[in-house]
Amino acid sequence: MGSDEPARSELLDTAFSTLREVPIPSGPSPQVLSTIVEAGGDFGSDLPTITRRSTSVTLERISGIAVGAVLLIGAWLAISYVVTDRHGSAVASTALAEAYKQVRQAKTLTWTDVFYHDVSTKDGKTTWVETIITRCMYKAPGRTRKVMLDDRGQVQEITIEDRARGMRLELLPKEEKATLTHLGKPSERDLRCLTDAFSPVEDALRKQTDDGSEAFLGKKRIDRRTAYGFRLTATVTRTTMDLWVDAETKHLILCQSPGRDVYDPETHPARHNRPGEEWTRTTRARVQRDIVFDRELDDSLFSLDVPHGYSVNTVRVPEPTEKDMIEWLGIQAQCNGNVFLDDEGPIANEPLRRIGSKSDQGKKLSAAERMVLERSRQLDRHHHAVRRFAEVTAGKTWHYQGKGVELGDEDAIVCWYRPKGSKTYRVVHGDLSVKDVPPQELPAMAGPH
Amino acid sequence: MTDWQAVVGRHTALVWQTAYRLLGDYEDADDCVQETFLAALEISRRQPVRNWPGLLARLSTCRALDRLRQRMRDEARREEPVGWSAVASADAGPEQQARAAELCERLRAALTELPPKQAEVVCLRCLNGLSYREIARELHINSAAVGRLLYRARARLRELLDPVVSAERRRSCHGK
Q1: pLDDT band at residue A41, thresholds of 50, 70 and 90?
Q2: Which one-letter DSSP state was computed for residue B82?
Q3: pLDDT single digits (tens) B79-116
Q4: Number of neighbours of residue A259 by Cβ within 10 angstroms
């Protein structure tokens, strides 16, 4: 055998060199590239990322979606989706329109929400699929009840939310613990959802009708019913969502996002992998099924009364103030080399993460880093302070133009807004000072929104 | 967001090549690229990434090897022959092409027989051309350990490719 060694070595080298020189077609596909880029767009925002060190942070807070899943579809459709091609039949288009009409008019809705997560080990080598099932109920106006089940079908968590009252109750039955959260005043969008959740959908549907198009997926049998399928595609991110509507009753039967061709829970390669030690998880897909309209739902299901015997933790989500907003802008700038960010959107997570990671590793922080970390922790409760401030307090008068402005520059304007009931604008400068300015003195170039 | 797009733009070719070379299948490579970048994104959310190409090479190699193992298991279950999806060179003659394709598939199959760490190291070294030091840094081991893993991997691969050596010898004997 020893005499074979040179031949074996040579063959091995040849094999590697052959593999290195394999002709490689151009790739990956545009769909995959788009998914990857889009994933980056969620960087630091709402996509749940759970590390072992912070499992309590973002475990798919389904409760965070306050109105029902179907309502969400409506808002989503209205905000960012357009129909995509001209294969849908007139009958099918009517079916989709009718389905939304029914959703809009529903007094109650019940459905099952299924999230598919890819869970990975720390080294990223092993990935398996975890399915989280939540039974959901919606009752107008703006009340939801969501019961999250564990993998044995046992109740893990119950979340009841009343948007009109701005209250949320979370119950952990096994531990008999309750958290009652005062959410504060509902935003304009919240309020619209209470009474007229689907007016934006009508606009989208009208657009669809005008265009005479939607991506029609054809017909198939779902739960012993014949259903029409439609594909909606986000205009910017190109994320897809498939909707299936009962051909006869026009009831919405099933929603899946992304579309089945992007992520199919039944054929996903990792679906049979054995779980390892969890380190990260990423939500890959969401399916809403078992949708039932106008079932009788007792008000007691939406009661915000804490059950007897439960320990209660009461939380008040503070309204962000102007001071919070300005402080946070300043911290972002500090984290960004003393320059304000390009936009007020997602917080400057990267520098904070860098400092946080350094701290976690026990490395010595500079005085500035310690200050930034401390301040960011203090202000963590206002994670999206600026955005929320813009939405809740200032409405459409909010305008940000801090891109490239140096922290401390008293002449440069970072942002402005008009407080409710005020005739003058509050203008924030690079040195974080605030001045009251009449509308005619605002910079003419950008102008208030 | 801009940074992420830059990362994707800069390193997609590396990830795609790594995945396609190992998998020899467009759709599998496509999935592998997606998984790789999503995994990298997750990692970057937890900690700063100092060496994107190194991280992406490691992740894409791991993912591709995982997929390759799965494929081999599936194909073994179906008792179908291993497919020759990637031909070595369009310029080579049919026989050479077939032989090169067979060699690639043999090597791919052999890689799935290695312990994961050895497979990873040998791929990073022999396919991606990473130095011992770079591999050591990515795998959080020292360079000596890389050397040991590589030695064992190559020894095992030589054994696994032995039937090919015998076949080549028989072929050359017939040729004479």
Answers
A1: low
A2: P
A3: 433 333 333 333 445 566 677 788 888 899 999 999 98
A4: 20
The span from the CA of B111 to the CA of B82, in Å, is: 14
Interface check A11 vs B, CB under 8 A: yes
* pLDDT band (50, 70, 90) for residue A306: very high
Listed by number, the residues of chain B in 79-138 with a beta carbon closer than 8 Å to a beta carbon of chain A are: 86-90, 100, 103-104, 106-108, 116, 126-127
Is A21 an 8 Å CB contact of chain B? yes
Closest CA to A72 of A162, A190, A159, A182: A190
Residue A443 DSSP class? -
Helix, strand, or coil here: A43? Answer: coil
Q: With 0.80 as the threshold, say if the pTM is over it.
A: no
Look at phi and psi of residue B24 and say left if phi exceeds 0, alpha if psi is from -120 to 50, else beta: left
Number of C-beta neighbours around residue B141 at 10 A: 15
pLDDT band at B171 (very low <50, low <70, confident <90, very high): low
Q: What is the ipTM of this complex?
A: 0.85
Domain range spanning residue B122? 2-175
Please report residues of A whose CB lies closer than 8 A to that of B159.
8
Amino acid present at A62: I
Q: With residue A292 as reference, give the H or E element that holds it.
A: strand A280-293
How many domains does chain B contain in total? 1
- Dihedral sign, Cα of residue B69, residue B74, residue B80, residue B84: negative
* Residue from the list B8, B104, B168 with its beta carbon closest to the beta carbon of A22: B104
pLDDT tier, A200 (very low <50, low <70, confident <90, very high otherwise): very low
**Domains parsed from chain A with CATH numbers:** 37-316 (2.50.20.10), 322-441 (no CATH)
pLDDT of residue A339: 85
